[in-house]
């Protein structure tokens, strides 16, 4: 007869091992290892866990684990334990219900397949016999996708005007609609975006074009008349800025 806890503790201290290290080795939490050393077996979930943990811990310390289990059984186990329950009715019910559940699952699967098959047949008949005219699907004329593609084919114009050398009065129009009219202070900028066509041109005029820097689609372009400080009516295209034709 020997003391289980003291023997384990002495072996651990003698080998200069700590609980975290032993926890990694045995996969047993440190608090349970400490409970074994203190013989506080009631802190463990069940006697079965005590025996398993005790054997693994003793083996990890180089001791004979089975001797510690036998010592625990002789001192702390008083009768039979861990008697498994055998509810015969409970075990028979799943076996009785098994065929029914399988039959029900097969019926549900067959029903789902029949519904899908019916939907496919109905869709085929609808598309082949009546050929209904649905706007935007099979009607004549440009589809929505073609309209979007045509719109995307027109180049985008993004104009950014920055007053760098001083203030400048601006008038900006797009498609005949005034977008801006006023003074652009030095250090400020205005941005305009447009997909121009024949009826939606981007146009602007500046009182002091020499004070402006124009950036068109991310690159700096020359403003006509800016070198001489002469105001001009200007037309913005996707690639450049030109003098606007008369009457625009």
Structural class: alpha+beta
Largest sheet: 5 strands, antiparallel
What pattern of helices and strands is seen along the backbone? HHHHHHHEEEEEEEEE
Q: How many DSSP H or I helices?
A: 7
Strand content: 15-25%
Short descriptors:
248 residues; alpha+beta; four-stranded antiparallel beta sheet; 7 helices
Task: Provide an overview of this structure.
The protein is an alpha+beta fold and 248 residues long. It contains seven helices and nine strands. The chain has a five-stranded antiparallel β-sheet with strand order 3-2-5-8-9, with no helix packed on it. A four-stranded antiparallel β-sheet has the order 4-1-6-7, with no helix packed on it. A hairpin with a 2-residue loop joins strand 6 and strand 7. The longest helix has 43 residues. The chain is elongated, with a radius of gyration of 44 Å. The N and C termini lie far apart (113 Å). About 10% of the residues have low confidence.
């Amino acid at each position: 007869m020997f003391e289980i806890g003291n023997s384990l503790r002495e072996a651990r201290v003698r080998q200069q091992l700590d609980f975290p290290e032993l926890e990694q080795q045995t996969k047993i939490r440190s608090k349970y290892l400490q409970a074994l050393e203190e013989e506080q077996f009631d802190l463990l979930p069940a006697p079965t866990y005590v025996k398993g943990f005790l054997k693994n811990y003793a083996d990890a310390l180089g001791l004979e684990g089975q001797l510690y289990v036998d010592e625990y059984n002789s001192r702390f186990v008083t009768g039979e334990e861990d008697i498994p329950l055998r509810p015969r009715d409970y075990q028979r019910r799943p076996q009785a219900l098994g065929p029914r559940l399988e039959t029900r699952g097969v019926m549900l699967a067959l029903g789902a397949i029949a519904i899908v098959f019916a939907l496919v047949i109905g869709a085929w008949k609808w598309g082949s016999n009546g050929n209904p005219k649905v706007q935007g699907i099979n009607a004549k004329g440009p589809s929505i996708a073609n309209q979007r593609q045509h719109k995307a084919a027109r180049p985008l114009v993004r104009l950014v005007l920055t007053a760098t050398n001083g203030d400048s009065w601006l008038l900006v129009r797009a498609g005949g609609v005034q977008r801006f009219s006023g003074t652009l202070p030095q250090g400020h900028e205005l941005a305009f975006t447009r997909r121009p066509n024949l009826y939606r041109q981007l146009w602007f005029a500046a009182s002091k074009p020499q004070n402006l820097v124009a950036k068109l689609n991310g690159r700096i372009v020359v403003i006509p008349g800016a070198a001489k400080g002469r105001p001009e009516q200007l037309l913005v295209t996707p690639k450049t800025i030109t003098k606007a034709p008369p009457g625009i």
